[in-house]
Design brief:
Keywords: Signal. The chain is an all-alpha fold and about 60 residues long. It has one domain. It contains two helices and no strands.
């Protein structure tokens, strides 16, 4: 159960940081719609989550 709490915490932190950092660095021009920015943010967040999940999986496999 403790491992699940750690994974959920990491997921939340990565998701929060991804949204905040990506939103602040998003282009502020008229050429980009909110839909495009949200799609890019979602794709970027998914990549980070997949990398974190792989790192956690590798960690637990290495420490069996």
């Amino acid at each position: 159960m403790k491992n699940m709490k750690v994974l959920l915490f990491l997921f939340g932190v990565i998701l929060f940081l991804g949204i905040i950092i990506h939103t602040e660095s998003a282009p502020q021009t008229e050429n980009h719609s909110f839909k495009d920015v949200f799609k890019n943010m979602t794709e970027w967040g998914n990549e980070k989550i997949e990398k974190a999940a792989k790192a956690v999986k590798d960690f637990f496999e290495a420490h069996k």
